[in-house]
UniProtKB/TrEMBL annotation:
Coiled coil stretches, renumbered: none
Signal sequence extent: 1-28
Upper lineage: Bacteria, Pseudomonadati, Bacteroidota, Chitinophagia, Chitinophagales
Keywords: Glycosidase, Hydrolase, Signal
Protein name: Alpha-galactosidase
InterPro entries registered for this protein in UniProt: Aldolase_TIM, Alpha-glycosidase_related, GH
The keyword Nucleotidyltransferase appears for this protein: no
The keyword Hydrolase is assigned to this record: yes
Source species, domain of life: Bacteria
GO MF annotation terms: alpha-galactosidase activity
């Protein structure tokens, strides 16, 4: 009997759920159906397919059994492909054999959201070989099946075949997330924390780590993602239009593990749906959220990087500037430290550091502090030696920087398996918490560690993606031991990191290059995947005030406003009020809650025909539309019509059409008409000059109309409409 999941009706019958294994006499065959999609895996020849039903169009195919590139006892590299022996038993266990080198077990679990490879275990015969690389989706090269061999020095090739790939933010500057199979060329796309060091298109902080990929076309997509944090560097490899996952270990350089049994728990989770983002959403659903996770109230964040990147290092002037716009937190970014990673202020650059920080706090503004995850400049001052750092094959400490420029300023890389390094990270964090009492710690450069070709932590438990994960875990636990309410801010959107962090930032939009509108839209769409993970989302900003309105229109939906903007123009003159007003409005009226769902309306998360595009989209909390962004591509929403660009934010727990306090923010000249049962008691206009009664509104027959001219826009932050309760 087939497992039938009626996704639209959200009904799964108990009988069907108990029996999803389907076998044919000649082959070990497993199938799974959902809606009009059928996933079928022939275990005998390791060929899985995703097809549309009816019609039988194949949207993805490839293998899922593991394979290994090992160095054997004779010092020779060899490729081993696991082969399934028959069908799964009643526990979902599939017996594997790897030629004469070992046997194994792969365990499949049936889940309402999809398929889980819950365990892979290999038992080596004799001495365990050194695993250089592990693959999912690779097969030996058949001589008769390869006409054009790609640049590749291995006796196997990736075997995932599809028309399209979707990897959120795979390419930055400008951002691209959807690719046809031939668009990639022959790349390695780092999915985790090794962006700049993996020969991958440059990607800094956001949105990595993602640790998943979607593949498909038209109405059929499959998402294959990590079920636990991998102990290797996880990469999507494309060779000759075909893909696979590589987990880079390089135990041939760093030594094989001594045990003869090697186990990977929760290796993969696989979900299918009719769009890439829907398959991602199911993948996220597979990770239960801890309802007891304590999340501190979020804040509007102003980051000093907007000025400090220009080598202008004021503290008090920045604090005075952000105070005028009702920002609630000032984050002191790099280079506040005497040297990167030290956790102590640079009193030459900031001679009155402690006094200025205390003065900012006395005015009611919280403080945040930037910290590196794995880099440090002055190891001697930190009490760390060579054994506490990641070292190369010659025993020399590895150095890293943000773009891996070999001639650039560089930093030593901490080995989290060293007890002294672990103690240093914890004590540095506790010291910062005690001395500066930050309400937020912004963690950076977890993505900038050397890849396993260069160096690895000594303890294999903390290798691969686990290295940065463990450092974030240590820092978070140390900070919360001093203040349980401190906010831990990071970048990556992987649900595996959600238990560690309280806020994810879209990072500054410098990485978006010249296309802030499209780039921030895509980043906002992918950030929304976290909306049910008890993680706050900070919209961040670009470095340019001229593009800030596009950022703020998305921030209205995401939640917490964040900025890395300068406090003066390039010539040193004051920022015009026309730029400041909208940021003031969003800082005043943004939604503080962190559990929500996106409402797309006529926006799109993208497909193989067009990239993601935000037009009108909203924020739903418990099924209630609490915020809405309207752009010029207008459609009627909740009986609202408009010309121009607008943002609407409910100031209570009611919808934007029933709230008694509605914030209305114009982002262009135009007119908006809203349902409003009672004539407003008052409509006030907010600007940088203060609050005053508004006169550019009217009400008739249950409709409120607000009109804003170009001249008025320059002097208007927004409107607060207050009505009597029904």
């Amino acid at each position: 009997m087939k497992l039938i999941i009626l996704n639209k009706m959200k009904v799964i019958t108990w009988i069907c759920f108990l029996s999803c294994w389907h076998f044919f006499p000649a082959q070990a065959q497993w199938s799974y159906e959902e809606g009009n999609l059928r996933f079928e895996w022939n275990l005998t020849n390791d060929r899985a397919t995703l097809t549309e039903v009816p019609g039988g169009a194949v949207t993805w195919q490839g293998g899922l059994l593991p394979s290994f590139w090992i160095k054997d006892e004779r010092g020779q590299f060899r490729y081993l492909k696991a082969r399934a022996l028959g069908k799964p038993n009643d526990k979902g266990e599939i017996s594997l054999v790897l030629e004469k080198y070992g046997t194994g077990t792969l365990v499949l679990e049936r889940k309402a959201w999809g398929i889980r490879i819950s365990r892979l275990s290999i038992q080596w015969q004799g001495k365990a070989p050194a695993i250089a690389e592990m693959y999912i989706g690779a097969s030996p090269i058949a001589a008769t099946a390869v006409n054009v061999k790609p640049v590749w020095d291995r006796p196997f090739l990736p075997d995932w075949q599809t028309i399209g790939y979707c990897v959120p933010g795979a390419k930055g500057g400008t951002v691209q997330s959807y690719f046809r199979m031939w668009d990639f060329g022959q790349p390695d796309i780092a999915l985790g924390n090794f962006g700049p060091s993996m020969s991958t298109p440059y990607g800094a902080a956001f949105p990595r780590p993602v640790l998943f990929t979607a593949m498909g076309n038209g109405r059929g997509w499959i998402c294959i993602g990590a079920g636990s944090v991998p102990d290797g560097a996880m990469t999507l490899k494309i060779r000759g239009t075909r893909g696979c996952y590589q987990y880079l270990f390089r135990e041939d350089l760093w030594g094989a593990l001594p045990q003869r049994t090697r186990t990977w728990e929760d290796l993969l989770r696989i979900t299918i749906d009719t769009s890439a983002i829907a398959s991602f959403e199911k993948y996220y659903t597979s990770f239960p959220v801890d309802a007891n996770k304590k999340v501190a109230p979020v804040s509007s964040v102003w980051n000093t990087w907007g000025m400090w990147r220009l080598k202008k290092y004021p503290i008090q002037p920045i604090a005075d500037f952000m105070e005028k716009m009702s920002n609630e937190m000032m984050v002191l970014d790099d280079p506040w430290e005497v040297s990167q990673g030290a956790g102590k202020p640079n009193l030459e650059k900031f001679p009155h550091f402690f006094e200025e920080v205390e003065q900012v706090r006395r005015k009611g503004t919280d403080i945040g502090i930037w910290e590196t995850v794995g880099w440090i400049k002055d190891t001697l001052a930190a009490g760390l030696g060579t054994n506490d750092l990641i070292r190369d094959a010659a025993g020399k400490p590895c150095l890293a920087n943000w773009n891996f420029d070999p001639a650039g300023d560089a930093y030593y890389c901490l080995d989290v398996s060293s007890p002294r390094t672990r103690s240093f990270l914890e004590e540095r964090t506790r010291s910062v918490m005690r001395r500066l009492k930050p309400r937020l710690i912004k963690l950076d450069f977890g993505y900038g560690m050397p890849n396993p070709d260069m160096g690895v932590p000594k303890d294999p438990r903390f290798r691969g993606e686990r290295s940065s994960y463990e450092m974030v875990r240590l820092i978070s636990a140390a900070a919360k031991s001093i203040d349980p309410n401190v906010i831990i801010l990071y970048y990556g959107i992987s649900p595996l990191w959600a238990p560690l962090v309280d806020m994810v930032s879209l990072d500054d939009q410098g990485d978006l290059w010249y296309d802030t509108r499209q780039g921030h839209a895509e980043w906002s769409i992918w950030a929304s995947l976290l909306s049910q993970q008890r993680v706050a989302i900070s919209g961040s900003s670009s470095y340019e005030w001229r593009t800030d309105d596009e950022v703020l229109m998305n921030t209205i939906i995401l939640g917490s406003p964040g900025a890395v903007l300068p406090t003066e123009l390039e010539d040193g003159t004051a920022i015009p009020e026309r730029f400041l007003n909208r940021r003031l409005a969003v800082n005043k009226w943004y939604r503080r809650s962190i559990l929500w769902k996106p409402v797309w309306f006529n926006s799109s998360a993208g497909n193989m025909e067009a990239p993601p595009k935000l037009r009108n989209w909203g924020r739903s909390e418990n099924g209630i539309l609490t915020a809405l962004t309207l752009r010029t591509e207008n459609v009627p929403v909740e009986n609202i019509t408009c010309s121009g660009n607008w943002g609407l934010i409910s100031q209570d727990e009611h919808s934007i059409t029933t709230t008694t306090r509605l914030a209305v923010i114009p982002f262009s000249e135009g007119k908006i008409e809203l349902p409003c049962a009672n004539k407003p008691m008052k409509v006030t206009k907010l600007s940088m000059q203060g609050t005053m009664p508004a006169d550019n509104w009217s009400w008739a027959a249950g409709r409120l109309t607000i009109t804003v001219t170009s001249t008025q826009l320059d002097h208007t932050a927004g409107f607060l409409v207050e009505t009597a309760a029904l």
